Structures are given as structure tokens and as C-alpha cells.
Amino acid sequence: MATKTGQQDKMMKVEKGEYGYVLEDVPHLTDYIPDLPTFPNPLRFNPAYSVVKQYFVDVDDTVPQKVVVHKNSSRGIHFRRAGPRQKVYFDSDEVHACIVTCGGLCPGLNTVIREIVCALYNMYGVTKVLGIDGGYRGFYSKNTIPLTPKIVNDIHKRGGTIIGTSRGGHDTAKIVDSIQDREINQVYIIGGDGTQRGAAVIYEEIRRRGLKVAVAGIPKTIDNDIPVIDKSFGFDTAVEEAQRAINAAHVEAESTENGIGVVKLMGRYSGFIAMYATLASRDVDLCLIPESPFYLDGEGGLFEYVEKRLKEDGHMVIVIAEGAGQELLSKSTVHEKDASGNKLLKDVGLWISHRIKDHFANHKMAITLKYIDPTYMIRAIPSNASDNVYCTLLAQSCVHGAMAGYTGYTSGLVNGRQTYIPFNRITEMQNKVVITDRMWARLLSSTNQPSFLGPKDAVEVKNEPAPSSQLLESENCNCEDKAAK
Asked: Residue 376, annotated ligand binder?
């Protein structure tokens, strides 16, 4: 097993071993509260799990961040594997858990809430679980909602979150005071990167006060822009539902001469939903995402391409992510942000629709353009079968970790295995589509659209360091390319 080397950070314990092995571990309650008693895991006596061989995870099990390497690669960064342990650090009767959801809506929120509650009750015999009403500010300004398996039984069939949500409202001292006053000792926080940053600060304050409170996060972003993890819950559902809007746009466009259907999809900083919906649909002629700049006028521009497709096919469908082309719009809202710290965006779908209409009106070419914005319809639907299963695994893994005494972590899927990831790794950057990757090349091949990059832009993009993207193949592309050479 690897031996500890270097400084133990509050948010991450780094262990190194032979052949370049690095474990970026998560904190444990015993890091600051020594001599905590342990208890046999109640799952030992659960008839549902008694027949499962090797159900408990070995304490030394880790999961590699990179699964594809070449022969000279070091073993690289690993994360602690999630799952139930032989011993737990909470007696079931002493657990008083709470769940909070923050930020925007996303398919699967209710499923995660349901499965946390059911895992605590049915696996560990915990009977005190509260829902914090209305996001972070609910800790000190609103009532709590008691949660039992009976109350949450059918909530996975509904969109939204039964315990409410909000943006902002984070006051660390008041939140931890509330946790202390209510004698809560397990906190489950569901939200995006801003929410997880807040969870990290809550953990640090709890640690400073020396409280036996486990803080566990579940990453939520419909845009799939959280790094390290394979994908975020709700993403599959969003892509599937986006097909309905694309199909409607295609029907409208195909039914009229020079018909254009424009569909705006989610993607503030990352274009994963737009890209995957486009690849899945096969009816899209142009996909625009924040990572790939474009221009409207002149040779090789968007207007020229739209005119070319209309002359060839008589219709076309355009998919645009909400964060695409923002640099082309008015600068008036550049510095304005919402309560979560996200930059306020202009409606790029409406803007590009008007620009296309104006362009063809000036060129005396009649078109019929229909603009569809399904954003809030997609956010508000229940999760599909794939996401329901994924939410279940995330929630149960999170509960196993808290019961085993881990804290200051996010539960996430890495290379198909559930892991515990330090908060700082989840919040250090945003996952983005790599437009020099094979997946984006597949999209360009599918739509036959130009890249819209001039020679100078293409060189700059190619020289940029590629961000990691576990959903795609991009993280391992460098290794494969080197091996090929």
C-alpha cells in the first residue's frame, strides 16, 4: 500500500506509491477527532445483502482517474473507491441527517433525495432525516421538512425538488450554528460547483469547531461541466428530452420552403448537451457551443453557410447552446451575475434568430424561421431510467461514505466506478468540450458544418492545453497519440 508523503491538506490527503501512484484521498473524522468508537456495519445483518459476496469495499481499493495509458505511463492519480465498509463511525440511533438542494433545477433531484432517505432508513436503520427547505438559506431562515421512506416514496416520478432550492444565501457561520443547534451530524449537499464550494467552506468550519459531523456532496449540473466525474446526473435525461425540441424544429423547417428551425439548449460554459443532442438527432445542420467561436458575416461565416444549406436542401436546423456567441452580443451584462455568481447571459437564440431574419431580408431571400427554447421544460421533467439508476448509485455511495466516517468529499463516478473525490478537485475548473477532440470531429462530420475558425484561431485553439473530460475520450487522447507515434 502507498505510504503518506508530504503535507496533509484539510481538503485532500495525498499519498504516493511506486510507479507514479498518487492517491488524492478525502478527509476522515478521525483526522481531527481521535479515538472515535466504531460499530459493526448494520448491512452485515441485512438479509438483502447477506448473500452478496465481498459486498464490503476493501479499505485500500482505489480507482484511477485515467484508464487508458501507454506503456510508459505512470499509474497516475487515484481516488478512494466508494462503498460500504466493514466498520462504521456512527451508531444508527445517533444519526441525525439533513439533505439540502441548491442552485437550478435538474432532472433527478428528487431521485437523489429519495435514495439518500431510503439508504439511511433501509440500509442503516437511521430514522431521523430532515430536508432543509429552500437551499442554503433554509438552514437559518426556513422550516425543515421531515423525510421518511413513505414521504419520498413516489417523488422520483416528479420533476423539481420537494425540499425547494435557491441560489446564494450562503452564510457559513449561521449554517454551522444551525447544524449544531439541531444536533445534525450528517449533511448531504446536492448542487453544482458553487454549491460544492459552499460545502467545502461548511466542512472547514465544522472541522475548526471539532464537530463530529460528516459533510458529503453530490454534484449536480445539467450542463455536465463538473470536472473529474464521468458525467453528471440528469445529463442523459436532458439530451433525450432535447430530441423532442430538435424534432419539432426539423418538422417545422422541413414543412416550408427555406425553413429554418433554431433550438436553444442549456450550456452556459460547456456545450455537452448541444453536442450530444446533435449527434443523437442526426437532423441538425449546425451546432454552436461556447467552446467553438463563430462569426456571422463574410467568407466562411455563419450566414454564408446557412444560405448554402438552404439552397442545397431547402431547410435546416440550428442548435445553439445558451453560452455560445455571447461575445458577439451587447457587453451590457458582462459584469452582472446571479445570486450563485453565474454571469447573466443574453438570449443568444433569440438574438441569432433576429440576425438571420435581418440578413435574408436584406438579401431579398424569403425564409420561415421558428425559434424553440425548451430550457425550462427540460429542467423540470423527471429523470429517465438511466439517470434514475445513476442517482441511486450516487446517493447510496454518499451514504456509505458518511457512515464510514469520511467527510469533506463529493460522491462521483470515475471510469465507471463510484468514488469519493475531494471538494477542491470538483471545484477547481469546469469541464468543457474539447474542439480538437475526435468527438467534436464526429459532430462536424455529422452536420457538415465548417469549424468557423480562421487559420490564426485554429492555431491558438490547438495550442491550448486540453481540459480533462471523462465523458469523452479527450483526456486520454494525448496518450493514444503518443503511443501511435
From this structure: yes
